[in-house]
């Protein structure tokens, strides 16, 4: 379960597993906006206040580390390896 004010894990997984080639422009924009807002929320929420589940979710989806270190999330790396990454 995600913390209050954070994007749900099911929404993140749903956005991650659907190939970019099958997404509409609206879906692309929505995914990017929601992802950025969730990263901002993860950045400002102190690590000590995050639930265990949120810490694990942030690790897999980039969360706090993606905004501070410019690292790709595990999900992004997997999508790229499968040829499903952002083609823009």
Radius of gyration (Å): 13 Å
Proportion of beta-strand residues:
under 5%
Spans of at least 5 consecutive residues with low confidence? 65-70
Derived from helix and strand composition plus strand pairing, the structural class reads mainly alpha
β-strand number? 0
Oligomer: single chain
Question: Given the structure, what is the number of helices?
Answer: 5
* Terminus-to-terminus distance: 31 Å
Shape: globular
Mean pLDDT comes to: 78
Q: Please bin the fraction of helical residues.
A: 55-70%
The main pleated sheet reads as: none
Order of helices and strands: HHHHH
Pfam family, one: HSP9_HSP12
InterPro entries: HSP9_HSP12
Biased composition (Basic and acidic residues): 19-35
Region (Disordered): 1-88
Can you tell me about this structure?
The structure is a single chain. This protein is mainly α and 88 residues long. Helices cover 61% and strands 0% of the residues. It has helices at residues 9-17, 25-44, 52-61, 63-69, 74-81. Helix 2 (25-44) crosses helix 4 (63-69) and helix 3 crosses helix 4. The longest helix is centred in the middle third of the chain and has 20 residues, at 25-44. It is globular and about 40 Å long. 17% of the residues are buried.
């Amino acid at each position: 379960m995600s913390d209050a004010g954070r994007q749900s894990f099911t929404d993140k997984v749903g956005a991650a597993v659907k190939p970019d080639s099958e997404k509409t422009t609206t879906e692309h924009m929505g995914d990017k906006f929601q992802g950025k807002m969730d990263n901002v929320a993860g950045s400002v929420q102190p690590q000590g206040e995050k639930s265990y589940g949120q810490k694990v979710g942030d690790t897999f989806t980039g969360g706090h580390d993606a905004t501070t270190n410019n690292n790709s999330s595990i999900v992004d790396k997997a999508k790229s390896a499968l040829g499903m990454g952002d083609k823009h």
